[in-house]
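hey so i finally got around to running the thing on that chain from the lab meeting. sorry it took forever, my laptop kept dying and i had to restart like 3 times. anyway pasting the input first so we r on the same page abt which one it is
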Amino acid sequence: MIVLVAHYRARTGQGDAVAAAMQTMVDAVKANEPGCLLYHLCRATDDSDSFLIYEQYADEAALEAHRNAPHFQAIILDTVVPLLESRERTLYHLVAQ
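ok and heres what got predicted. didnt touch it at all, straight out
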């Protein structure tokens, strides 16, 4: 299993716009990506412009399908990324649960 953890930092004041677009992404992933086992969006309690996204994929192919999905292009790359100050992603292999 592949785990992806992403930290998004919205430009000042853009947190609500990022949250709204990311809710659309969560819905699209649930509806269209059977290989995505978990997709959680979290917002910092003390900073409304800071987000953590926790994702689990069945395998590398499922992660690649996610990256190539039309909704990833439209929502993440075209809508969310321009609203961000920073975007950091780290991949992990699940060791235990």
